[in-house]
Amino acid sequence: MAKKSDLLPGTLDMLILKTLTRAPLHGYGIALSIKRCSDDVLTVEEGSLYPALQRLLLQGWVKAEWKITETNRRARFYTLTAAGRRQLGLELSQFDQMIAAIGRVLQDVPEV
Amino acid sequence: MNQLHSFLGKLSILFGRRRFHLELDEEMAFHQEQAEKAFQAEGMTPKAARLRAMRQFGNATRLRERSHEVVGFSFETVAQDLRFALRQLRKNPGFAATAIVILALGIGASVAIFAFVDAALIKPLPYPNPARLVEVTESLALFPRGNLSYPDYVDWKRMNTVFSSMDVYTAHRFEFYTPSGTESVHGLQVSAGFFGTLGIQPMLGRDFLPGEDAVGASPVVLLRYGAWQKRFGGRPDVVGQSVNLSGVQYTIVGVLPKDFEFAPREIAEFFEPLRPTSECQKRRSCHDLIGVGRLKDGVTVSGALAQMKSVALQLENQYPDSNRGQGASVMPLSSAIVGDIRPILLVLLTGAGLLMLIACVNVSSLLLVRAESRRREIAVRGALGASRARLSRQFVTEALTVVASGSAMGLGLAYLGMKGLSRLISKDWMAGMPFLHGLGLNPRVLIFAACLAVLAGILFSLTPILHFRFSDMRDGLTEGARGSAGRLWRRMGANLVVIELATAVVLLAGAGLLGKSLYKLLHEDLGFRPDHLATLNIGLPSAAFSTDQQQVAFEHAVLERAGSLPGVQSAAATSLLPVSCNCNTDWVRFVGKPYNGIHNEVNEREVSTGLFQTLQVKLKSGRFFTDADNAGKPKVILINQAFAQKYFPGEDPIGRKLGDTQLSPASIREVVGVVENFKDAGLDQEQWPAEYEPFDQSPDGYFSVVLRTSQDAGSILPALAPMIHSVSPNVSVDWERTMQQNIDDSEAAYIHRSAAWLIGGFAALALLLGVVGLYGVIAYSVGQRTREIGVRMALGAQRNSVYRLIFGEAGKLIAMGIAVGLAGSVASAMLMRKLLFGVQAWDASTLAAVAGVLAASALLASYFPAHRAASVNPTEALRSE
Prior knowledge:
The structure holds two protein chains of two kinds.
Chain A: H1 12-22, E1 25-26, H2 27-37, H3 46-59, E2 62-68, E3 74-80, H4 82-106
Antiparallel strand pairs in A: 1-3, 2-3
Helix pairs in contact in A: 1-2, 1-4
Chain B: H1 2-15, H2 17-41, H3 46-57, H4 60-71, H5 75-91, H6 93-122, E1 133-139, E2 148-149, H7 150-159, E3 163-178, E4 181-190, H8 194-198, E5 204-205, E6 220-223, H9 225-232, E7 242-245, E8 248-255, E9 270-273, H10 279-282, E10 287-295, H11 301-318, H12 320-323, E11 327-332, H13 333-338, H14 342-373, H15 375-383, H16 388-424, H17 427-431, H18 443-470, H19 484-522, E12 533-539, H20 548-563, E13 568-574, E14 585-587, E15 589-590, E16 601-607, H21 611-615, E17 619-622, E18 636-640, H22 641-647, E19 657-659, E20 669-675, E21 690-694, E22 702-709, H23 720-727, E23 732-738, H24 739-744, H25 747-784, H26 786-794, H27 799-831, H28 844-870, H29 874-880
Parallel strand pairs in B: 4-9, 6-8, 16-21, 18-20
Antiparallel strand pairs in B: 1-10, 1-11, 2-10, 3-4, 3-10, 5-8, 6-9, 7-8, 12-22, 12-23, 13-22, 14-16, 15-19, 17-20, 18-21, 19-20
Helix pairs in contact in B: 1-2, 2-3, 5-16, 6-14, 6-16, 6-18, 6-25, 7-11, 14-18, 14-19, 14-25, 16-18, 19-25, 19-27, 19-28, 20-23, 25-28, 26-29, 27-28
């Protein structure tokens, strides 16, 4: 598959969790939401999305249930759990720290 | 917490596997549909949108696998490997069966032998604190562990400071009266503290009291559990009752525990306190006791030995007449019990270990052959993305499958082997080795088997992994490539096969030589005619036959009655049957010869007048005994040739006199004749000097009767006990056997027979393994040379020359194996010279036969691959590459 823009490693889980804070969504909805919110910069490949969802399910950070969509189709909707919310907080703060650290490195070094 | 959550999740998915897949499929189908709709909304044709969505989605199977990997357990891939391994083995039943059987044989032999080692050498003796128990005996140049005399025992017990207690025992027989007749039962006379020293408490009643072993104390007896059950019906009220043993009323004071065992005298049923009443026990020079001591805390065996040696030295200085050269021996009781079989067991264990090693080498070599033939498969799987770890795990799984089946089968073989080996041990020996009763697959043995299996598993897993590590996997993809690893293995495998064949030759030669020894042993010239002889033992109860006259009168009556039985040509008596042992010795001193106190140890037998005629032993000079040589006449003896040669070299022994060490007048006796040597001792023992005294002048309450029969000796045996009991119903009769049975079952015959069977068994295994190893190497080589052979045949080579080619390769290995093996055989036969009898280590006919057997079976093994090579269809061989 053509390379669009690769996600930063380790950020996919965080993006999924964040997306789910707004509303329960099915897999396609999650992928679409991430794509839209990032102005088409971030594309979640299906090959990564579903294994990631299984992982989050196993950890108990999301839960899944089958519901009927507006178009009257059966789809599996993922909801964030309390544990997922805590995990998201943790990951966000770690991510912030990392971005800040990278930012400091990339800044022009002031004269000492 | 998360771990647990995740584990439970995986578990529920594992059991709802079908549902998981269905849901995932539906979810992804929905996704694809949505994507398709989105593309259509952008203006694509339905077909293009569908293709686009599918392309974007990629390999659906792979996608599913990746989701699965997240939720699956790692053992699920192991299960896959296992299924694959089983399929592989089923596809190659020949390989699988060979590898498993070889491994099973190796494990079976090792575990069976180890079970014996465990039972005899590892399992502690069944007494409290068994490591503190020692055997205490006197020691002589001729007998490193000689019996104690009673006076010496009393002094040793008094003078030592190293034992918290020291006691003695001696074998004894009782006449036990039953309604069906008098039985001779085994017993033990023990000093009063004996059971206390061992740490054994009777389960019923009480132990002997101190002082119950004093002269004049009232007779008491302890029962063995088995005797209590068998002879007293296990009645609990037996304690306090009285029982008639050998005509004396004993009070039963107790019953020993069920699990009590005493290996040195396991057959003992009755135990009585030892009272120094016999003639022997009054003399310091008569040795009939064995001591058992319990070491005080902090005293070592060597410390105890040092002190007992100095005690013995003091006594030697004090009593130079009787104690000259009487040292001391102290050794752990366990060594005293299993000392004789320890070296045999360790040799066997080494042999089994070697077999196991050869088996492992063979199986590794077979695994290598297979790995080599799967080079392409491995390369393809590697190219398709299988990781090295995944490929390695496949080999590990296959190896473990082989090991698991081999081990399971090996345990079964070990069990059978134990049963078979136990059967090699005679009943009498088994009775002396109660520790072998617990023989079986106990936890220690199972742990040993598990260790072997783990080691084999590691070896078999590493072999193919290392093989591929050292060869570049890409080589495997190139057509017909034969890496250097293949050649390396061929050379190494060939060397290993030479070693295996050589080992087989050594063991086969050993088995052959031992078999021949056994034959020679059983057909040795004994100095008398062993056929048509019936024997039995008679025990006279001491109460009813207390005087010499009574014993002599009974012996005369029995021999007279026996001699008149139909089919009996002559009857005679002796204190000890021929072909027994160099034992029951006497210490003599010659009248008119200088004496410096040295031990002149000779075998001593009391025999009836007609013994030599009955055995058909020839007289060299002088005369046989006559009925006139009775108690009223001066004492006379016959001696054997060995006696004459050793003590009367170049002299005429007739008319010479000898006596005991003090030359006490009552002991003086005159030599009246010399008989030819005949086997007093065991079959493989050397001929000792022997003196024969007339029974009438020196009678005994326990003797053997020998009958020469005109018909088969076995047919007369059932008539003997009734005949003896018709003379006196109170005497015991046992050991009614033919002389030939005695010889065949004698200790020497048993040792040689067992050794021959054992080494023979090992040899058969080694031969099998060696031949399989040879087959493996030749088959591998043929497999690799198929194209070469095809080319040769295409160029006009005849099938005969192909046979020659393969047989040439095999023949070189076989010849080398035989040559190395024969050299090793002679060397190892020199080492076991002691076990050989009448056969030289370099016995040509045995070695030739061994070489023949090995060559024939090895050529047979190479015939199959040679035949396959010769049947190669040249066009096919060339096309297939």
